[in-house]
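Hi U.,

Before I forget, here's the chain from the pilot set. I'm dumping it here mostly so it's searchable later in email.
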Amino acid sequence: MPTVIFSISYPIIEEKREEYLETVRELKNYLTNERGKKYSVFESKTRPNTFNEVYFCDSLEEYDALEDDADEITEQLINRIVDEFIKDGKTEYKTLIEAV
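Structure:
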């Protein structure tokens, strides 16, 4: 089964950086420790305040179930990120499927 990497990239409102980092830490802690997901958040080296959330899925089935598997806590945290922190609502989504 191929590994699937799903990423969401976006700039955040600079003045809300600390609040964003607190929220995304809470999301990462919840997803990895409570839900058993493989999830990380990275900041661009060349574009400060631009972040990339990355989900690592062990199969296409796990990837396909990501949205359906989101519970209330996950949805609340994600909605907070989208509604309060993303600059101008700009997001870029990417799905990579392991080839070899």
